[in-house]
Amino acid sequence: MPLWVQAGFWGAVAGSALILGAGAGYFFNLPKRLTAAIMAFGSGVLISALAFDLMDDAFHRGGFDATAIGFIGGAAVYTAANWVLSRRGARDRKRSGNRQPSEKQQAGSGLAIAVGALLDGIPESIAIGVSMITGGGVSTVAVIAVFLSNVPEGLSSADGMKQAGRSATYIFAVWGGIAIVSGLASLVGCSIFRSFSANIIAATIASAAGAILAMLADTMVPEAFEQAHNFAGLITVIGFLSAFLLSKAGA
Q1: Would you state the pLDDT for residue 142?
Q2: How far apart are alpha carbons 90 and 109 in whole angstroms?
Q3: How far apart are CA 213 and CA 46, in angstroms?
Q4: Scanning 74, 129, 132, 161, which has the fewest C-beta atoms within 10 Å of its C-beta?
Q5: DSSP letter assigned to residue 50
Q6: The pTM of the whole model exceeds 0.85
């Protein structure tokens, strides 16, 4: 099977967790603290993956300069885009409960939330595809980390969308579309960047890591702490350790 097809497949697999999470958030009335605990665990898993998998890979490919530039650049671009979308109603897109505005409360917020959810998912998917270029295989840790973090993302956000009065058609169209785009982003990342230099590849992987870390700090960690309170830190650490052990087991 061609490498780019594999990349698309694994990106779609990781993205499919968003649909699973959205289904759980829409059809089941899960306790808010359980949702927050899952989100805290997913945050820890992602932090571990970007620290020991993505950033380490970027550094070995292109050295410190390319990695640092990409890392800061990815975080800056994500922050700027997130700031714009937040002003249009997408600030609480990962929040459960009644924090998200309805279309009546803020016109255009539905589109902003959909675009914001897409913004959150693309860096992770690109990182999966680009990281496959020279190794010839997928990073199991990266796929599992993105999958585990996507479940609480879809769960919490779908619950918030439902509370804001958005239809099931809207909710599952958003997350189903993002799952498809996730596969395409991994496919494109693998196909386009394979002909670039090691420095460009390193900067791209690092920029995805920077965007993921900024996303965690801006959206997932605040939601987890708001509901889980003092236990959020411990659960995040457990998630981090789980991914760390997984990475070492596959080393």
Answers
A1: 78
A2: 6
A3: 8
A4: 132
A5: I
A6: no
